[in-house]
Write a structure and sequence with these properties.
Layout (H helix, E strand, L loop, with lengths): L6 E2 L1 E9 L4 H14 L4 E6 L8 E9 L10 E6 L5 H7 E10 L14 E5 L1 H8 L3 H20 L3 H11 L4 H21 L7 E2 L10 E4 H11 L4 E4 L6 H14 L11 E4 L3 H13 L4 E5 L1 H17 L3 E7 L16 H5 L9 E3 L4 H18 L2 E7 H4 L2 E4 L18 H5 L47 H21 L4 E3 L7 E6 L3 H13 L5 E5 L1 E2 L3 H8 L3 E6 L5 H10 L6 E5 L8 H14 L11
Parallel strand pairs: 1-8, 2-5, 5-6, 6-7, 10-11, 10-12, 12-13, 13-15, 14-15, 18-19, 18-21, 21-22
Antiparallel strand pairs: 2-4, 3-4, 9-16, 14-20, 17-19
Helix pairs in contact: 1-4, 3-4, 4-6, 5-6, 7-8, 7-12, 9-10, 16-19
C-alpha cells in the first residue's frame, strides 16, 4: 500500500480542462486565493493554439519556501476533461490525489490503486441548480473550486473577497459566484471524509512585498518608463499582449491631461516587415520605438534588422519566444531564437540580447534596452518567452529612480555643429566604436548625412573601397565590444563549498535552476552558477568557465544554442561545456535539471544531450 502524500503549503495541483470552457478564471481564482493566504504560488497555463475544444492545463505550484519554477510531478490532478483522463491519471505521483466529476460512475479499471480518488458529482449539482446550459458550465468551475477549497483548507472568506474585487459594482455576479462556491464547499463537507486529503494550505506571511505580474505587461510598462513613444507591431502569439498593454498604459500615462491629445503612436501594421520598418524610421527620426514579436516575426524582419545594424539606427525588438521552427508550437515556450537573433540578417552582424528572468526584469530590461539602443545606435533584443510573458508570476516590486534620465548617447546638437565640431556620421572619435549622430532638422546646413545600408566611408559617402568597408566593420566590432560593459552583468551564485563544477543558465530557466541548485547542494553536490543576462558576454563569463573543469549549460532548445554561442564567441573548448537541454514546449522543471546533472556526474564522462521528458 502506497502511503498518501501529506504536505502543508508544498504541493502541485494540475487542472485539466477543455479550452473555451471558462475554466481559466476559476483556476486563477484558486491560485490567487492561496496567494492571499500569504503562501507563494507559481501558476502556469499550458493551452492549445486553437480557439476552443482542445485540452488545456493549468498547473499551480504551492511553495511556502518560495520556489517559483516548475518542480516536476503532480500531487493532485483535477481531471475535468475526459479526453485526457488517461494522461492526467498517469501524471499523478504515487500516493497523490485524483479529483474528478463522479456524476457518471466509472469502472474500477479507470483508476489507480496507488492514488486516492475524490469524486464530487459536479454535473449533477449543476443540473439540479441551474437550467441555463452556459450557467451550468461556468458555475461548474466555481463549484469545483469550492470543493477544493474545503479539501485543502483554503478560507472561503478569501475567495469571497476576490469575487467582490473582480465583480465590483455587479452585485448579482458576486452573489451568484458565492452561491456556487458554497455549493461545492458544502457538498464536500457533508459527503467526504474529513481526512480524505492530506494536502493542506495554512495561512502564512511568506509573500512579503512581492507582486503578481505578467512578463508582457511588465515589459510594456518598462517601455513607457523607458521613454518609448512609438510601437509598431503585427499580432502574433505569444507577444500580442505586449503591444496591447503598452496601448493601455499610454492612454493613462502618455495622454495630455488638458487637451486629451495622445503623445504616442501605436500602429498595427500589415505584417512584421512593415512593423520593424516603421520602428527603424521612428528611431532614425529620434523617437524611442519598439516592436513586439516572436520567432516567426523575427525571421521576416531580418533584412530590415540588418539595415538598422549597418546604418546604425536605434531599435528595440521584444521577442517573446515560442516553439519552432516555422510556426512551430505557437502556445508553447522555448528559448530557441538565440542564434536567429544574435546574428539576424545576412553578412557579419551581431546584436545585443537581453535575457530577463521574470516580470521584474522584463520591466527593467525594457527600459534598459531603449537606453542601450540609443547609446549603441543599434537594434537591441529583449529575449523573453511565453513562460515569462503569458504567465502570472510572483516577483519583486517594480522600482524606478525618478532621477534617472534617458541615455540618448552621442547626439550632436546644433550649437556643437555651429561651433565647428567635426561631424562624421560613421567616424569613431574616441575609440569605443560609437559614432556621433544628428537628428533630422538639427541644423539648417550642417550635420546632414545619407543613411546607407550599403558601404560608405566615415563621412557617410558611398564607397566600395575595401579599406572603407574593413574600417567600418572593425569599428562595428569595437562598438560590440564596448557593449560588454554596458549590458546587464551576469549574477554569480557561489556554492558554500569549493567545487570544480559550474552551471550557466538564463531567462525563464532561472526559477527552476535556483531550486535545483539548492537540492543538489543538500545532496552533497555543490555547483557554482552564473546567470547570464546579456549578449555580448562580459569578460566575467570567460573567467567563470575557466575557473571550472566542467560547466553545465542549461537551456530550453534542442541544439544547445547558448552553448554554441559561447563556444563561437569565446573560443571555449566544447568538451568543457555540458549541455542540459529541455525542449518539449513545457517550462523546464527543477527535477529535470537536477536529474540531468546527477546522471552526468554519476556517469563520470561527457553525457549526451539530455532530452526533455517532464
Amino acid at each position: 500500500m502506497v502511503p498518501r502524500l501529506s504536505a502543508i503549503n508544498d504541493f502541485v495541483v494540475k487542472f485539466a480542462n477543455v479550452n473555451g470552457s471558462g475554466s481559466a478564471s476559476a483556476n486563477e481564482l484558486f491560485a490567487r486565493a492561496i496567494l492571499r493566504m500569504g503562501v507563494p504560488v507559481s501558476p502556469r497555463n499550458i493551452f492549445p493554439s486553437n480557439i476552443q475544444g482542445l485540452p488545456t492545463w493549468y498547473e499551480v505550484r504551492v511553495s511556502e519556501a518560495g520556489y517559483l519554477g516548475r518542480r516536476g510531478g503532480v500531487d493532485m490532478a483535477v481531471a475535468m476533461n475526459p479526453e485526457t483522463w488517461k494522461q492526467d491519471l498517469a501524471a499523478i505521483t504515487p500516493g497523490g490525489y485524483l479529483f474528478y466529476d463522479s456524476t457518471r460512475p466509472l469502472p474500477a479499471s479507470a483508476f489507480r490503486d496507488d492514488i486516492t480518488a475524490i469524486g464530487v458529482p459536479l454535473t449533477a449539482i449543476c443540473n439540479a441548480t441551474y437550467t441555463d446550459p452556459r450557467q451550468r458550465q461556468l458555475f461548474k468551475n466555481i463549484i469545483y473550486v469550492g470543493a477544493l477549497s474545503h479539501l485543502l483548507g483554503i478560507e472561503a472568506g478569501v475567495i469571497e473577497a476576490l469575487f467582490a474585487q473582480q465583480f465590483k459594482g455587479k452585485e448579482p455576479l458576486i452573489a451568484s459566484n458565492r452561491t456556487a462556491l458554497h455549493l461545492g464547499r458544502d457538498w464536500a463537507r457533508d459527503n467526504l471524509p474529513a481526512d480524505i486529503c492530506a494536502l493542506k494550505v495554512e495561512r502564512r506571511d511568506a509573500v512579503g512585498d512581492m507582486i503578481f505580474a505578467e512578463g508582457n505587461a511588465a515589459a510594456a510598462l518598462g517601455a513607457v518608463y523607458g521613454g518609448a513613444t512609438v510601437c509598431a507591431w503585427y499580432p502574433i502569439t505569444p507577444s500580442s499582449s505586449v503591444a496591447e498593454a503598452f496601448e493601455g498604459y499610454c492612454k493613462k500615462l502618455r495622454t495630455d491631461p488638458e487637451t486629451g491629445q495622445a503623445r504616442y503612436a501605436i500602429i498595427q501594421s500589415e505584417d512584421e516587415l512593415a512593423s520593424i520598418g516603421m520602428v527603424i524610421g521612428a528611431g532614425w527620426n529620434g523617437a524611442r520605438a519598439f516592436t513586439s514579436t516572436s520567432g516567426p516575426g523575427v525571421s521576416l524582419m531580418t533584412e530590415f534588422i540588418g539595415l538598422a545594424y549597418f546604418a546604425e539606427i536605434p531599435a528595440v525588438i521584444m521577442n517573446v519566444q515560442r516553439g519552432g521552427p516555422s510556426t512551430g508550437m505557437p502556445t508553447r515556450t522555448q528559448q530557441s531564437d538565440i542564434f536567429s537573433c544574435a546574428y539576424a540578417s545576412n553578412g557579419d552582424t551581431k546584436h545585443v540580447l537581453l535575457f530577463p528572468e521574470d516580470p521584474r526584469e522584463c520591466f527593467d530590461f525594457a527600459a534598459d534596452a531603449l537606453d542601450l539602443a540609443d547609446r549603441l545606435q543599434t537594434p537591441v533584443f529583449l529575449m523573453s518567452d511565453l513562460d515569462i510573458g503569458m504567465n502570472t508570476r510572483l516577483c519583486r516590486p517594480f522600482e524606478w529612480d525618478e532621477s534617472r534620465r534617458l541615455d540618448r548617447g552621442k547626439v550632436m546638437t546644433a550649437a556643437e555643429l555651429e561651433a565647428g565640431k567635426t561631424f562624421g556620421r560613421y567616424l569613431d572619435v574616441d575609440g569605443d566604436g560609437i559614432p556621433w549622430r544628428t537628428l533630422p532638422g538639427t541644423h539648417a546646413a550642417k550635420g546632414s548625412f545619407f543613411t546607407r545600408g550599403t558601404t560608405k566611408n566615415a563621412y557617410a559617402k558611398y564607397s566600395e573601397e575595401g579599406a572603407d568597408y574593413v574600417e567600418n566593420m572593425e569599428r562595428l566590432q569595437r562598438k560590440f565590444d564596448t557593449a560588454k560593459k554596458l549590458v546587464p552583468q551576469p549574477i554569480l551564485r557561489q556554492a558554500d563549498k569549493p567545487t570544480k563544477l559550474g552551471a550557466l543558465y538564463f531567462g525563464s530557466t532561472a526559477p527552476a535552476m535556483d531550486e535545483a541548485l539548492d537540492h543538489l547542494a543538500a545532496a552533497g553536490q555543490p555547483l557554482d552558477a552564473l546567470r547570464l543576462r546579456a549578449f555580448p558576454f562580459p569578460d566575467s563569463v570567460r573567467a567563470f568557465i575557466e575557473a571550472h573543469e566542467q560547466v553545465f549549460v542549461v537551456e530550453q532548445n534542442r541544439d544547445g544554442q547558448m552553448r554554441s554561442l559561447i563556444v563561437n564567441e569565446l573560443g571555449i573548448d566544447p568538451v568543457r561545456l555540458v549541455p542540459v537541454l529541455h525542449y518539449d514546449g513545457t517550462p523546464i522543471t527543477a527535477r529535470f535539471i537536477g536529474q540531468s546533472i546527477r546522471n552526468h556526474i554519476q556517469q563520470g564522462a561527457l553525457a549526451p544531450f539530455e532530452r526533455a521528458v517532464s
